[in-house]
Amino acid sequence: MQENGRNVRGDPGANVATEVPRSRARRWALHLTLPGCWGAVLFACLSFTPSLLPRGGILQGMICGITAAIGYGLGVLLAFVWRAFADRPPRSPKAASWWIFGACGAVLFAVFFGLGQYWQHEIRTLMGVSEYNLALAVLSPLVAVVMFAVLLAIGRGIRALYHWAARTLDRWIGQRAANVVGWVLVAGLVYAIVSGVLLAGFIDAANAAFSARDTRTEEGVQQPTTALRSGGPDSVVPWDSLGWQGRIFVGQGPTTEQLGEFTEGPALEPIRIYAGLASADDTEDRASLAVEDLTRARGFERSNLVVVTTTGSGWVDPALVDSVEYLTGGDVATVAIQYSYLPSWISYLVDQSKAREAGRDLFDAVYDVWSKLPQDARPRLLVAGESLGSFGGETAFSGEYDLRNRTSGTVFAGPPNFNVLFREFSDRREAGSPEIEPVFRDGRTVRFTNDPQAEIPPTDEPWEGSRVLYLMHPSDPIVWWSPHLITSEPDWIGEAPGRDVLEDMVWIPFVTFWQVTADLPFSTGVPAGHGHKYSTEYVDAWALVLQSPEITPDDIDEVKFIVGAEE
């Protein structure tokens, strides 16, 4: 019966009317195509191949699920293209085909899962990592299934939205035009949601969290009582304006007593100058303020002056500065400014222009004063930066000759793959030199190394004048990550692997990109000397760049012991 157009209770037609759409929706949600499943299983297996860093079970499961979803989409696409050329509609596979897929897929996945555990063990051995959670490794396939299901549901939701848009538009315009316009509208909507809602929301949340931290002071860090530090007596930069990382930078470091024990004689107190985000309104003003404070502290009267571009959060690696302070007996001034409070991996997305401005404005402000000093009264002008700091530090220079002519030496560690000069030097390297240790113009000014205590190629060529040294670990994903990994094999994978990269690592379209992408947030979670964690390498690097005859091998070993103990 019907009452006022509605099925009343007890009418069997009511259940039929509601159950049919529900069963269709359930079948649509659970339906998987055989070509897509083959693509998903093959890509899921390939996700277990080795990358640059060891992976935990949860991370491996996420990578497996993402690559499986990519494989499923490619399988469906290839099947669609093949049917278009064969000019036939889709048809349901036979039951035997599903049984064959199930058996072969299970065997393939089990084999690659086992190989993946072996490869991860080998990577951990290379890096001296002993931590391994068996339970999470076993759980990784379940994580992969959940990730795959979520991505598949999102993809089908987008497709359903497209079909709805095309059907709606078809009422007013032609079908072909409706299909095209529908895709454009849906693609634009997805892009707007991802970039304008999800990404913007993520960045806003990160800004709120890290800006709050920037107002605090790390436990144990005290305001300097010396006039040789920003935030100390007579400083033109207020202590409260330095930010979290700035207060750590000026509040720590080797004391005069510690330096004296190392030099076995008198030592100078190092000068550390810093301007935080709250110190001035823009980068140029912060750079001018830092130089004013540097002049007040008589930093230009030291024998060595180091201009450091910070990482995204304003961090200056203690190993970078401590090393040069020990090797110079404290006769050094270091100056830096903050341009963000976000971690570098987030700053890659939003603060590249700020890093560029900070590196250029700070060096130019320092150079403006330094260049006007009498030549016999100038300190050695040195430049340094790690990660995004190397990107900012490079932007003050136009190329090799500019670095050589305007500095006395440079140390850049873990340069991101998008660094302009780094890419220029690497891409124009001499034939036969590997990408992990390229040789640029006979190494006359710029050289690269993953182990500065070993001989740096080219060993048979002189390295005179100002030296520019890049430190980059073969296993550092910051150095090697690039969007081109999606479709192009880089030289560093095709060539002989570095000392801490498995020879079994191969390039696989789409897969390698997501593997290296997943390595980025965990690039410092490995022992020093691997990944993006640079430590005692700075001691060897500074010894090479400073070229001081007073620095002995024993001095280098002792400073490396001190710096390594601080990690």
Automatic annotation (TrEMBL):
Is Metal-binding included in the keywords of this UniProt record?
no
Start and end residues of each Alpha/beta-hydrolase N-terminal domain? 48-254
The portions of this protein that span the membrane are 32-53, 59-86, 98-120, 132-154, 180-203
Which InterPro entries does the record associate with it? Alpha/beta-hydrolase_catalytic, Alpha/beta-hydrolase_fam, Alpha/beta-hydrolase_N_dom
Q: Write out the entry's keywords from A to Z.
A: Hydrolase, Membrane, Transmembrane, Transmembrane helix
Pfam families, per this entry?
Answer: Abhydrolase_9, Abhydrolase_9_N
Q: Which residues form the Alpha/beta-hydrolase catalytic domain?
A: 271-558
Q: Which GO terms describe its molecular function?
A: hydrolase activity
The protein's name in its UniProt record: Alpha/beta-hydrolase family protein
